[in-house]
Structure to design on (469 residues):
C-alpha cells in the first residue's frame, strides 16, 4: 500500500478526527493559539511602532530586533517558555509565538508610518493638525497597506511555527506529526504533514484576500508597489 | 491546562557545572550542527547556481521557479519533514534534504537577483572584447553577482542554523538535541536548554561574520557597496 493510500486511510478514519487528540480539536487549538499570539503581538508592537514612526525615533531598534530574532531558533524560544514558571502547554506557546510575531509587526508598521511623504506631513501641519490628529487622520491611513502586509507575514509565520509547539507539549496540529514520527507510522505522519501544510496555505490565502480587501482603493497603487518582487530580500521561512 | 512541574530539585537557568560535566555531549551536538549547516549550504549553492542561470536565460522559467519558492516558504518545516519521511526514512538524510530544500529557495532567488543586476553595457563591453558565452559567465557575470549571492548565502546560513534544531524529531538536531532531549525531555532540565540556545545564537553570529569576511576577500572591489542583508 502506497504512502498516499495509508495517509488517506488515516484521514478517513473517524476516530482520528474526534476527541482531545483528534484533528478537529487540534486544528481549533492551533488556530486559537495562533490568534491569541498574533493579537498579543499586535498589542505590543503596533503602539510602539506608531509612536516610533510618528516621532522618527528608534529606527535602529527595529533593525537590531529583526536581526536578533532571526538568530534565535523558534524551537529554542518555545522550549524556554515551556520550562519557565508558566510551565508547558498552550499558554507558554502563545507567549513564545507572540514574541516571534513582534519583529515583523513592528518593522512593517514602523516602515508604513515612516514612509509617509514629507510633503503630505507638511500639508497636514499647515492645515493645523496636531501631532495626534496627524497620526490618526494622515499617517495611519496611509500606512494601512504596510501594516496589513506585516500582519499577514506575522500571522502566517505564527501558524507555521505553532506546529513546533508539539515537540514540547505545547498543543496544536503538529501533535499528529510528532506522534506519527513517534509511532514510525508513515500514513499518520504524511497525513499530519498534509493537514499542517494545507492549514498554512489556507491561512496565507485567506489573509492575502483580506489584505487586498481592507486596503483602500486610493492607496492600492502603493500597495502594489509594496508587494515583494524578485529583487526584494527574501523572507526567512518561519520555522 | 497542565499543572506546573514541581521544582523539587534546583533547576538553574545557567549552570557551568552542566557545561563542564557534559562537554562531550555538547561537542558532539555542535559538530553535528556545524556539519549539517555546511553540507546544506554547499549542496544548496551547487544546485542553486545552475537553476538561477536557467531562470535568468530562459525568461518564462523565472516565474514558475520564483512562484514555487513562495509556496514552499509557507510550508512549516515539520510538515516538510513529515512529507519526506515515508520516502527517506528515519535518518539524517531526512534532515539534510529538508534543509537543502529551504536553503535552495533563498539561494536561487538571490543568485537570480545578482545575475539580473549585471548591467547590459558590461555584457556588451565583454562581447565587444571577444568574450564567449562561457568565459563571459565565469569572468564577468558571476563575479558581479557575487555580493548578491553571498547575501543569499548569509540569509540561508542563519535560517539553516535555526532549522537544524527541528531535526531533533528524527534524532539529528545538533544543538536541538540539547534543547529537547537533554533539556525538555529530561525532567525540564533548564541548563542544557539555555546552553543549546546560546550556542545556536553564537554559531549564527560567528558564521555570519566569517561569511562577511569571505565576501570581502572574494570581491574586494565591492567593499562599502555590499548588498544590504535582508
Amino acid at each position: 500500500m502506497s504512502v498516499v493510500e495509508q495517509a488517506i486511510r488515516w484521514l478517513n478514519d473517524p476516530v482520528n478526527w474526534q476527541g482531545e487528540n483528534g484533528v478537529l480539536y487540534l486544528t481549533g487549538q492551533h488556530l486559537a493559539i495562533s490568534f491569541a499570539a498574533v493579537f498579543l503581538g499586535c498589542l505590543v508592537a503596533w503602539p510602539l511602532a506608531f509612536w516610533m514612526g510618528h516621532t522618527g525615533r528608534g529606527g535602529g531598534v527595529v533593525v537590531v530586533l529583526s536581526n536578533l530574532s532571526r538568530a534565535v531558533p523558534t524551537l529554542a524560544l518555545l522550549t524556554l517558555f515551556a520550562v519557565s514558571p508558566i510551565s508547558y502547554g498552550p499558554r507558554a506557546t502563545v507567549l513564545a509565538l507572540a514574541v516571534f510575531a513582534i519583529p515583523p509587526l513592528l518593522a512593517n508598521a514602523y516602515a508604513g508610518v515612516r514612509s509617509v511623504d514629507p510633503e503630505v506631513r507638511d500639508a497636514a501641519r499647515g492645515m493645523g493638525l496636531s501631532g495626534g490628529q496627524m497620526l490618526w487622520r494622515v499617517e495611519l491611513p496611509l500606512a494601512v497597506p504596510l501594516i496589513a502586509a506585516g500582519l499577514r507575514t506575522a500571522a502566517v509565520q505564527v501558524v507555521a511555527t505553532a506546529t513546533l509547539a508539539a515537540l514540547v507539549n505545547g498543543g496544536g496540529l503538529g501533535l499528529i506529526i510528532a506522534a506519527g514520527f513517534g509511532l514510525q507510522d508513515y500514513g499518520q505522519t504524511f497525513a499530519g504533514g498534509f493537514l499542517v501544510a494545507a492549514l498554512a496555505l489556507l491561512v496565507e490565502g485567506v489573509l492575502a484576500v483580506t489584505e487586498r480587501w481592507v486596503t483602500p482603493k486610493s492607496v492600492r497603487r502603493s500597495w502594489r508597489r509594496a508587494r515583494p518582487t524578485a529583487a526584494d530580500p527574501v523572507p526567512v521561512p518561519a520555522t | 491546562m497542565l499543572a506546573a512541574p514541581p521544582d523539587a530539585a534546583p533547576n538553574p537557568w545557567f549552570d557551568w557545572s552542566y557545561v563542564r560535566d557534559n562537554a562531550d555531549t555538547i561537542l558532539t551536538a555542535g559538530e553535528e550542527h556545524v556539519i549539517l549547516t555546511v553540507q546544506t549550504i554547499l549542496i544548496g549553492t551547487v544546485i542553486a547556481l545552475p537553476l538561477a542561470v536557467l531562470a535568468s536565460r530562459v525568461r518564462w522559467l523565472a516565474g514558475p521557479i520564483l512562484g514555487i519558492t513562495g509556496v514552499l516558504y509557507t510550508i512549516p518545516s515539520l510538515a516538510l519533514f513529515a512529507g519526506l519521511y515515508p520516502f527517506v526514512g528515519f535518518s539524517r538524510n531526512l534532515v539534510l534534504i529538508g534543509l537543502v530544500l529551504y536553503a535552495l529557495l533563498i539561494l536561487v532567488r538571490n543568485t537570480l537577483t545578482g545575475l539580473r543586476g549585471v548591467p547590459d553595457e558590461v555584457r556588451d563591453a565583454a562581447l565587444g572584447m571577444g568574450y564567449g558565452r562561457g568565459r563571459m559567465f565565469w569572468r564577468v557575470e558571476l563575479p558581479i553577482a557575487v555580493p548578491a549571492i553571498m547575501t543569499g548565502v548569509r540569509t540561508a546560513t542563519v535560517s539553516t542554523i535555526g532549522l537544524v534544531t527541528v531535526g531533533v524529531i528524527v534524532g539529528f538536531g545538533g544543538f536541538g538535541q540539547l534543547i529537547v532531549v537533554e533539556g525538555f525531555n529530561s525532567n525540564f532540565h533548564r541548563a542544557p536548554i539555555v546552553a543549546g540556545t546560546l550556542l545556536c545564537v553564537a554559531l549564527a553570529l560567528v558564521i555570519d561574520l566569517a561569511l562577511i569576511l569571505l565576501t570581502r576577500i572574494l570581491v574586494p572591489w565591492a567593499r562599502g557597496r555590499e548588498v544590504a542583508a535582508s
